[in-house]
Predict the structure.
Amino acid sequence: MNVNFRNVMTIAQKEFADNLWSPIFLILLASFSLISIASCYQYGVIATNFVGMMDSLMPGILRGLFFFTSTLSQFIPLFGIALSFDTLLREEKSGSMNVLLTHPVYRDNIITGKILGAMMSLLLVIAVSMALSIGTLIMFIGEEITLFEISRIALYFILAYLYSIIFLGAGLFISIIVKNTSDSLIYNIVVWLFFTIAYSDIIRAILYAFGIQIVDADGNLSVIFQQLLGIAPAYHYQQLVNGLFDVSQTIPYVLSNFWMDLTILVVVPIVLLVLSFIAFLRKDITL
């Protein structure tokens, strides 16, 4: 490896700037911002009319974010895909990658810079959506955010970021191993649809077909159903969010009780990014 941090940061800054002014990125950001506001607005209307009921279990801001989680878990992976499905293919097909490699810039610098730039862009997306969501909730509920809520919101932000990087890594890896942008987009959309929308329903249908119960005698999800759901990243993200917003438990208790889910959210994106790094170093990108 010949990592030159100056080259890496230059590439990362360029990637971030390119993403920031990309029409696709701006359209997705504007759309998701509107979805975030609409989702929290819907909760805000409910909370305004049923304050006692909604605040009985947890503070209004946290309950509003919990209400927003299902929307976030379905749409934030799209940004990971949008930022990665053609980030390398676009430059390979245009020939600019070969031109770049004629300069004293090594492949590991390029892929590292691309990853950092995409991660910076993803961080911006989540920060904007969180700010809009919290602002909308505060406007309706009229509560001040306490230190108790800030600590959980901060961890919620980190978990959402880790979850989104999984799809960024998957999108980057797919874009490296396929030949063209259209194939990369199709495969990434299939991955998104399968793991975020269709997977749980498919597993439920298969278990029903084999006569396997998905709920045990106590009304809890059966062990086999939970194990199969564990293949999807969204399951682990949701488990952690459920524990985090259980205000009767401390954060250290939540992290220790859901350590496996947290480990998966940390390890899976690292593995995918490392695989992408290795695949790019081995790929023949000559035109």
In short: The chain has a mean pLDDT of 83. Residues 44 and 141 are 6 Å apart (CA to CA). The two ends are 24 Å apart (CA to CA). The longest helix spans residues 107-141.
